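Collaborator request, handled under Task 6.
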Amino acid sequence: MQELTDTPEARAEDAVVLRGTNQSGMRAQNERIVLSLLRTHGALAKTDIARMTGLSAQTVSVIMRELERDGLLVRREKLRGKVGQPLVPMALAPDGAFFLGLKVGRRSTELMLVDFLGKPVALERKSYPYPTPDAVIGFVRHALPLLSARLPPALAARIAGIGIAQPFQLWNWAQFIGAPQSEMDAWRHRNLQAEVAALTGLPVWLQNDATAACGAELVFGRDERPRDFLYFFIAHFIGGGLVLNGKLHTGPTGNAAAIGSMPVLAQGGGLKQLISLASLFQLERAMTERGLDARTIWEQAEDWPIPAPVRRDWIARAAPAMAQAVLAASAVVELRAAMIDGWMPPDWRADLVAAVRGAMLRLDFSGIEMPEIIEGTIGHQARSLGAAAIPLSQRFLSETV
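C-alpha cells returned to the collaborator:
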C-alpha cells in the first residue's frame, strides 16, 4: 500500500524500507516495489527508481522491460535538456489490470469495476431493506456480466480479482436495521468469500467494510496524510480503521479499530456505544419520526434534501461522541490525526469535521497531544473503492511501500 510520509525523519526512514534486492529470486518483490513507487510518485525514470530503491540500473531495466511487456507500464514523453541521453519516464498503464470491489451494506450493495489507477469504470447498485446472503449473491450474478461487458474481451481478461467490503457479524445488528433475526442468522453459516469465488472463478479477498474504506485512502487518497491516524467511516453504522506507521492495521482477526463498539458518555449521562450516537440509522429514524421519506439517505449521497433542524440535531449528537472516541483512542495510541469520511454529502462531512473539532476543545487532553481532525478524500464510494483496492494491493503492491 501507499507509503505515507510527513516529516524529514519519516522520509529518511522510508529510504531504508524501500531498499530492493538484486537477487534474481526476489524479482516479484522488486516488481511490487517498482509498481508501488510509480503509484505513489507518478511517472519515474529508471534512474530515479534505481536511486530510490538501491537496485542496480541493470536490474531496474529488466524489471521495467518485463512490466512494460506485460502491459502494466507505459512510456511517457522523453525528458530533454539534460546531459546525456534523454530520460524516458514510465508510468502505470490504466488498462494494465482491472479490479472489482463488492460493497455489502445494510441498505444497499454495490459492485464497482476500477482500472489500474483506481479510476471507476462502471458501477452496479442494488438497494434492499436489509442484506441477506442470497440477495448479495443474486446481485453479483446479475451485475458481473454487465460490468465485464463494459470492457473489450482482451481487457476483461485482465480483471485480476474481487475484494469484498462487508460488515462483520451482521447477525448481531438485526434489531438496528429492522430485519428478521432468522434471516440475518443466515450470515452465521454462509461463506460469502467462497461463494463469490465459486460464482466468478476469480481470486476473492474479504475485509471489514470500514477497514476497506480506510484502505482506499491509503491506495487512492489524494492528499498526504499523517503516518498514524484513526479513521471514521459513517454509514448506516459508524465504523473505523487504524493506520500505524503508514500501514493499515487490521489486527489478528481483521476487526481492529471497531470503534462503533467504543463506550462514550451520552448527552444526559450514561454510557452508550458510539454506534448508537454517530450512525446514520439515527438520522433515518429522526426523519421517519417527522414523517419524512428517509429513503433519500440511501438512494444517493451527493446531496440530501434534509431539513436544517434534522441535520443540526444529528451533528450535535454525533460530534461530541466522536470527539470522546478520539480522546480515548489517543490515550492508547499516539495519533497524529483522526480522519472522517462517510456515506454523506461533502458539506455534511465538512460540518461534522468542524463540529468534532469544536467538541475536542471542550475535552481534557492533559497528558495527550490532541490529534488534528481532517476530512477524508475519497467520499461516499470509499467502501467500494476500498474493496477493489484489496486485490490490487494483494496482487501488485508492496507492503513496504
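The cover message to the collaborator said: "The radius of gyration is 22 Å. The first strand starts at residue 73 and ends at 75. Please let us know whether this matches your experimental observations."
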